[in-house]
Structures are given as C-alpha cells and as structure tokens.
Design a protein that fits this description.
Strand content: 5-15%
Number of strands: 10
Radius of gyration: 21 Å
Shape: globular
Order of helices and strands: HHHHHHEEEEEEEEHEEHHHH
Helix content: 40-55%
CATH class of the largest domain: Mainly Alpha
Length: 392
C-alpha cells in the first residue's frame, strides 16, 4: 500500500506549517496566559481553506480529501492544539453534518460562510448530566406552529461564545428516548441564547469551552437539521467524522513534543556533554518517534478509509483516536522528562503540550467508549447508541 503524499497534500501541509510558524507560534504563550481565542488568525486559516476542507467546492469549500484534512490539523496542533480543536469542530461536526443532512437552503446559507472562516461552528450535545450517555440529554424542543422553543443547558461546548453557528440537540419527544432527539441549527443572536460561563481548564486554554443556557430560544422550523427524531443519528455520524480530526490533533501535539525534545536534547549539556549522548535520553526519544510514526500510519489509514471505504471507516476512526490519544499522552510525558525541570516550567512549550494532551483521551468519545466501539465491531455486536458519544 502506498502511503506517500501527493503534491497537493504536501502543498497543504507545507502551507499550513509556514502559516503556523509565522502567524501563531510567536504569540502562543501570551494568548494562553490571557486565554485569548485568536479569531482573526482562525479566519486567515479559513481563507487558506482550513475551515471547510471537506466541503465541496460548489458550497465554497476546498473539496479536499480526508488525508489532506488530517495533515492540516496535525500541522496546526503541532504549534497550537487549541486552534486545531476549533478547526476540527467546525470541519467535522458542523460542516459535515450540514453537508450530509442539510437542505439546499441550509447549505447555501451556512456552508460558504463556515468554509471561508467568516464564522466557526460549535457542537452542543453534552449536558451536565449527559456526556457519553447521549440519549440522556434533558434539553427540550417544543414545536409551536412554524417555530420550536428550545430550553436546557449545554456544557463543554468547544467554540462556545465565539461560534457563529451552533448545532444543538434537544428532545422533541421525551418519551421516545434516543429516538426522540432532534438536531437544530442555532444562531447566537436569537433571544434566550446566552453563555452562562466559561470552563476553567487544565489545558487547551486558548480554546473556549462554554456552558450555554437556552431559555425558550425561538428557532424556525427551517433550522431543524434533518427530520424530528433523527438527531442522535446526526450526532453519532458527526462524532465518527470527528474522531479522525481529534486523532490528527493528538498526532500534531506528539510531533511537536518530539521536535522540542530533540532540539532541547542537542542543546542541553550535563556532565560536560550534550544530554543527547546519554542512552536514557536516546531511548526515550526513540520510543517517542516510534509511537508517533505508528500513530501516523493508523490515522492516515483511517482518513483514507473515510474517503474510499466509508462502511469500514467508523471502527478504524475509533482505533486511530484511541491509539493516537493515548500515544500523545505518553509522548508528552516523556517530553517533559527529557526537559527535566525546564519541562515543568511555563517557559517551555512541552509544559503546555503536556496539559493539552490530557483531554484528548476524554472528548469526542473517551478511550473506554472507543474500546467498546472497536470490540463490538470485531464481535459483530451493535453498541447501544446511548454509550457511543460525547461532545468535544
């Protein structure tokens, strides 16, 4: 099997890398201390095609393949994991559901603006009492004529407060369980929609994670995404798409941590010589590079399957997400170890990477949920819908 990159894929990778080094790396520490979301830079990435990579050109997107999308996210996360997750959410769990389930009117209204980076998206499934148990959400949507009134609370909403479009899931038929959930496209300007608070997080501090309050938000019927009762189907298909994105984010963090470790090991001296000459350091770096290379193969294969063999892609996306997210934590840990006390200082990039890595095994489906998906695909079992999803 040929895993070599095409000229177009190399161009995307190199263009994004140059942008991240020139436009973002010099400001990352300052932005993290201020918890500043770089909306201007995200819009510039949108102009490069990074906000709508999987959107066909007819709807204003780049029309790229999923491997190119994975490469883009890896290069962004290599410098700034917070920006990578913002792009992953917009591409995977906003643009793709719109493309798959949206009406032509909805696509025309939102996809070009999302693809150009004029607005970014947010995915609103998780609630204070419902994470992996997606069918347990309590938000309600009651229809009254040509509108729905949405009420409830959404938590851990990535891009909350900075997004221009929110994909919100609520129960239109509370008695129907998972079959009673419906998806809605909600703009933040409507009455009754507000950010209740922002999360104080260990990592990804540049990324905004918000709790949203929905107080009888009036949403037109034409903003329903798909039919009533199809919301969980929309959510789970979006999360399947998103797992390749989060796996790519994990890969980028790990690649960045590896590069920083190699650079530091060559510069740092102890006992009269470079620490890169010590076997203990060499073994850690060798393990890190092997882990990254293994994850890259799995992630790129999962991305390739998404385009060429979609029925097989879901379980492989879970494998990629599981391995890459846990690999990322191992590599970030070793990167701090290579740096010693400097790795524990906020003056080093690996300290931030270590904190950013921790959440990767939790959102977009925990490692435990991925193991369930993988095992049941091998055993020919169907995973209960209520146990498959968690919001980014």
């Amino acid at each position: 099997m040929d895993f070599s990159l095409t000229d177009d894929q190399k161009l995307i990778r190199d263009t994004v890398r140059q942008f991240m080094e020139a436009e973002m790396r010099p400001h990352i520490r300052e932005w993290e201390r201020a918890e500043h979301f770089p909306l201007e830079q995200v819009r510039k990435l949108g102009e490069l095609g990074c906000c709508g990579m999987l959107v066909p050109e007819e709807w204003g997107g780049a029309g790229a393949d999923t491997v190119s999308y994975s490469l883009m996210l890896e290069e962004v996360a290599r410098v700034c994991a917070s920006t990578a997750v913002a792009l992953s959410v917009t591409n995977s769990v906003i643009c793709k559901p719109l493309l798959l389930h949206g009406s032509d009117a909805q696509k025309k209204k939102y996809l070009p603006r999302l693809a150009r980076g004029e607005m970014i998206g947010a995915f609103c499934l998780t609630e204070p009492q419902a994470g992996s148990d997606a069918a347990g959400i309590q938000s309600r949507a009651a229809r009254s004529g040509d509108v729905y009134k949405l009420s409830g609370t959404k938590s851990w909403v990535t891009n909350g407060g900075v997004a221009g479009l929110y994909l919100v899931f609520a129960k239109t038929d509370p008695g129907a369980g998972a079959r009673g959930i419906t998806a809605f496209l909600v703009e933040p300007s409507i009455a009754g929609f507000r950010v209740a608070r922002y999360e104080e997080k260990m990592g990804l501090r540049i990324s905004k994670s918000a709790e949203l309050a929905l107080d009888d938000c009036v949403v037109p019927v034409e903003n329903r995404l798909g039919e009533e009762g199809q919301g969980l189907k929309v959510a789970l298909s979006a999360l399947d798409e998103g797992r390749v994105g989060i796996a790519s984010q994990a890969l980028g963090i790990a690649q960045g941590a590896l590069e920083e470790s190699v650079k530091y090991a060559k510069q740092r001296k102890a006992f009269g010589r470079s620490i890169s000459e010590f076997q203990a350091i060499q073994w850690m770096i060798a393990d890190m590079q092997t882990d990254v290379a293994a994850a890259r193969g799995l992630v790129h294969y999962a991305a390739w399957l998404r385009d060429h063999q979609p029925p097989a892609a879901g379980a492989f996306a879970s494998r990629a997400k599981l391995f890459a997210s846990e690999m990322c934590n191992r590599v970030a840990y070793k990167a701090v170890q290579v740096h010693g006390s400097m790795g524990y200082s906020r003056e080093s990039d690996v300290e931030r990477m270590y904190r950013d890595a921790r959440v990767i095994t939790i959102y977009e489906g925990t490692s435990e949920i991925q193991r369930l998906v993988i095992a049941r695909s091998l055993l020919g079992q169907t995973a209960p819908a209520a146990r498959k999803a968690t919001s980014p």
